[in-house]
Structure formats: structure tokens, C-alpha cells
Design a protein that fits this description.
The chain has about 500 residues and is α/β, with parallel strands linked by helices. It is built from 22 helices and 14 strands. It has a 5-stranded parallel beta sheet. A 3-stranded antiparallel beta sheet has the order 12-14-13. The chain has a two-stranded antiparallel sheet with strand order 2-3. Helix 12 crosses helix 14, helix 13 crosses helix 14 and helix 17 packs across helix 21. The N and C termini lie far apart (about 85 Å). The model has no long low-confidence stretch (mean pLDDT about 90).
């Protein structure tokens, strides 16, 4: 607070301060931020045309609302960013549990305090951060946790009759009076507990046990839920859904650029001296996009944005580890480092039955392969495996020199354990490989050039143009026909 605030009820009256309902407060503050062209939800990417306009409408309409979406769609982060829509400080009657408006006391204690002290009633100022509370819905949450219950220990300690309203121990919802209360994963709340929220949403009051007491609350209720929960763990009862004014659907990033922006903002990689080129970012995000389209992955469960974030952190750690082992100071990833993201995939994607039959590791490997193929085709022409039609003019094969290199029986061995000199020597030894990259990508950065040379090899492998044998962290590239004949010979 920049100036001395009123400390008594009388001073508050003379200051000209006016009370207003919390939803009206949020509405007016939001209107002010909209007029000032302020960013409403910093760090929330990809929702500018979809989720945020609906959210703004709900707040302007003074609605209770729910964010409905799959895991990792920033639902909780959005809810927690509602707090700045509250006034920075708000006056409350000192010594009360329910953040009570000095002009409109609601509890017997506050009403008695004002009756006894009048304009000398002490006033406290609460910061907006104290006016937001949230609860993760779990099956063991009770009405006492949310609304309140009789506290026999308090009655005994203060020698109060059990019928005295002062023996009530208020739950977290009434303690958030004149603020924002959020319930995450709402379907996990037992139906009988959800019933206890009906009065709060419709009549804006609560009832505690058998007390002839109805406490009017001024509160904005917001919720989050995952559609998967509707069948797997629980449901939102129909009367409660009817009382939630707005349902806002969230979604995963719809463009690679949005996905990269999210990962860049969230991945904890600042501690490592590693450069992540855009091509590698594309490979990481494309792997997640492929998972969201895969028939082997349970799409009703979703593929969280945390997959890309964890994958980026794993990849950076792989580069860091190689530098420590080799003694190189090469803070640049390689295409083979992309396979270091496997733990992020296998640990975070839910598979359908067919995927379980394939195995998480095989599915993850296939997703990375599809991502490499997709990114490869964006930067280089699609390879041709078949010969040209003899009745037509022959079309030059841009990869002919590379294919010829391996068709003579030569092999190339790459590993994430190679030093930079060994890595450079291996790639530049493949005839025609550098020229292909130079033709389609203009760069003076040698590391970027080597990275794309390796991408060409991986792209040709995933298009079945050249063979690749994998042994631990070693990749051996060779002629696909020779590899097939060798394999047939081994089976005889």
C-alpha cells in the first residue's frame, strides 16, 4: 500500500471506500486492463483466439465457470492468473474468519463486534494473494473440509455450548469469502460432496449441520476437469453442471510455433550451456504432435505439453553428459540425441491395447521416426526409391551420390559418444552429403550444417532408402539391399 489506509470502521467510512461484490470487482478490473491493452494471461500461448475470449466473456458476465480439457493444457495456470483481477488490497473486519466486508458483516462474531465498537471497529487490509484459494478434489474431501463443521474441541476449550455458532470450524470455501475459490479435477469429488456446492453456486450461501444459520457468501467459484474423468474416475452431477454458468474448452497447441514457445518458456534448461537449434526444437515438438495423432496412443487420455518439456530437458542433459565424457566444448545437439527423449515419451503417454502389444519403447521409437520423416520432408525433397520410368525423361535423384556411396559396401557409424572431430570426419566422409545440404540450406554455421547432414541420413533411413542398424547408442548406416541380403543369409 502506498499510503496509510484506514484502520477503523469510521476512518473507512470517511475515506469514501465503497464495497462491491467480488464478481463486479473482477469485471471492472478486467475492463480496465482491456482498455489499457494489457496482457491478461502472461505465458499462456495459443489460446488468444479460442480460450481467452471465452474466459473474458465469462468474467464480464460475472459467471462461475469451469475449464474443461485434457491433461497439460494450462487449466490450473490460467485459474491462478485470475488473482490480478482482484483489487490489490481489500478491507476486512479484524479478528473474523470470513474476510468480512466492514459494511456488510455476515457472522455473529462480526455483527457483535460492530454493535459493541461501532466506528472504532478495527479494520485490516488483505492482499489479493490472500483472497485466492484452491483445493484439489480427491475422494477423501469432506463437507467439513469445504464448508465447515462443529468443532467439539473448540467448544470444550472455550467452554461454549454446542449450540453456540462460535463452535463452528469454518471450511476453506467460507474462509475465501470475497475472493476466488478453485476446485481442480472436480469429477473426483464424491457426488454427495458436490451436492454441498449447489447452494453456494445458486443462492450464494452455506448451511452448517443443524444450525438455523445461513451464511451469505460473496465468492467466485471456478473449476477444472478432465473429460477422461467423466468415465474413469467420476462425474459431475447434473444439478452442479447446470449451476456452473460457463464451460470453456481448452486444447493443445495447434501450431508448431505455439508448441515451441510453450516448451521454451517452461523447460528448465538455463543451467546447461547448450544451444537448441530450431531444427531440434521442431523434432521434439513434432514427436509430441505425432503422439497426438497415433492410433497406438490413447487420445482420450491426451498427450500433455509436459511431454515436450521433459523431452527438451532430457535432450539437453544428453548433450551436457557427452561434453563431460568427451571433454569437448560442443554445446550443440545432434540428431542422434533425439533418442534421449524416450523416457519422456514412455513415461507420459497412455497406450491403447494395440500399443501395449507393441510395447511402450517400440511405440516411442516409431513416433520419433515419424517425426524425423516429417521434419526431413519440410527441408529436403522426398527421396525416390524406384528407378525412373524408361518412357519418360529421367529425373535426377538428389540423393544419388549418397545412395551410391553406401551401395559400394561402405558403412557409416555414428554415436552420441563421438567427439566433435570424429563426428565431423564421419559425416564429411560421405560423398555428396554436404552438397545436398548446401543446395537446400544456406548456412555458414558448421554445426548447423553437420546437424542437417545427419538429418538427411536419418530421413533416408526412415524412407527405407538406406539401412540403419542400431546397437545401444551406435547407429550404423549401410546399403539397404546389402543389409537385406546379409539378413537373409543369417537366417539360413
Amino acid at each position: 500500500m502506498t499510503k496509510k489506509q484506514p484502520s477503523t470502521l469510521g476512518e473507512l467510512k470517511r475515506s469514501g471506500w465503497k464495497s462491491r461484490p467480488v464478481k463486479q470487482e473482477m469485471r471492472e478490473n478486467l475492463l480496465g486492463r482491456l482498455r489499457a491493452r494489457e496482457e491478461l494471461f502472461p505465458g499462456i500461448v495459443g489460446f488468444d483466439k479460442t480460450v481467452i475470449p471465452q474466459l473474458v466473456n465469462a468474467i464480464l458476465a460475472k459467471h462461475h465457470f469451469i475449464l474443461l480439457g485434457l491433461r497439460g493444457q494450462a487449466k490450473t495456470r490460467i485459474i491462478r492468473q485470475l488473482t490480478p483481477l482482484l483489487d490489490e488490497y481489500q478491507p476486512v473486519i479484524a479478528g473474523t474468519y470470513l474476510n468480512e466486508d466492514p459494511f456488510h458483516p455476515i457472522s455473529p462474531r462480526a455483527q457483535k463486534t460492530i454493535a459493541d465498537l461501532g466506528d472504532e471497529t478495527p479494520i485490516e487490509w488483505r492482499h489479493r494473494s490472500e483472497r485466492y484459494h484452491e483445493k484439489l478434489a480427491t475422494p477423501d474431501v469432506s463437507i467439513a473440509d469445504l464448508v465447515g463443521d462443529i468443532d467439539p474441541i473448540k467448544a470444550a476449550r472455550e467452554k461454549l455450548d454446542i449450540s453456540n455458532e462460535e463452535v463452528i470450524h469454518w471450511g476453506i470455501i467460507p474462509r475465501t469469502n470475497r475472493g476466488i475459490f478453485a476446485i481442480n479435477e472436480l469429477p473426483d469429488l464424491q457426488p454427495r460432496i458436490q451436492v454441498g456446492l449447489l447452494n453456494i453456486l445458486e443462492e450464494s450461501d452455506i448451511q452448517v449441520r443443524g444450525f438455523p444459520l445461513r451464511v451469505p457468501l460473496d465468492i467466485c467459484m471456478v473449476f477444472s476437469a478432465n473429460p477422461e474423468d467423466y468415465t474413469n474416475r467420476g462425474n459431475i452431477i447434473t444439478p452442479l453442471k447446470d449451476r456452473i454458468d460457463s464451460q470453456i474448452m481448452t486444447h493443445y497447441p495447434r501450431s508448431l510455433e505455439d508448441a515451441k514457445a510453450i516448451t521454451e518458456g517452461e523447460a528448465d534448461v538455463a543451467h546447461a550451456d547448450v544451444t537448441i537449434p530450431e531444427l531440434v526444437q521442431d523434432l521434439i515438438e513434432e514427436t509430441t504432435f505425432q503422439a497426438r495423432a497415433s492410433d497406438f496412443v490413447d487420445q482420450s487420455s491426451g498427450v500433455s505439453a509436459r511431454v515436450s518439456i521433459s523431452a527438451c530437458e532430457n535432450l539437453v542433459s544428453a548433450v551436457e553428459q557427452r561434453n563431460l565424457r568427451s571433454g569437448d566444448k560442443d554445446p550443440f545437439p545432434r540428431v542422434c540425441d533425439i533418442y534421449a527423449i524416450l523416457p519422456a515419451l514412455t513415461g507420459k503417454i497412455e497406450l491403447v491395447y494395440e500399443g501395449e502389444q507393441e510395447g511402450p519403447a517400440m511405440v516411442a521409437q516409431a513416433l520419433i521416426g515419424k517425426a524425423i520423416s516429417e521434419v526431413f520432408r519440410r527441408h529436403f525433397p522426398a527421396p525416390r526409391k524406384e528407378k525412373s520410368d524408361p518412357d519418360r525423361s529421367p529425373t535426377p535423384n538428389p540423393y544419388e551420390a549418397v545412395i551410391d556411396y553406401f551401395s559400394t559396401g561402405r558403412k557409416l557409424e555414428l554415436s552420441d559418444e563421438l567427439t566433435l572431430d570424429q563426428y565431423r570426419s564421419a559425416l564429411t566422409g560421405v560423398a555428396g552429403l554436404k552438397e545436398i545440404v548446401r543446395k537446400h540450406f544456406d548456412t555458414r554455421d558448421e554445426r548447423e550444417l553437420l546437424l542437417r547432414m545427419e538429418l538427411v541420413l536419418e530421413g533416408l533411413h526412415h524412407h527405407n532408402v538406406i539401412a540403419r542398424e542400431e546397437e545401444d547408442t551406435i547407429f550404423r548406416y549401410s546399403d539397404i539391399l546389402s543389409d537385406m541380403l546379409q539378413g537373409m543369409g543369417g537366417r539360413q
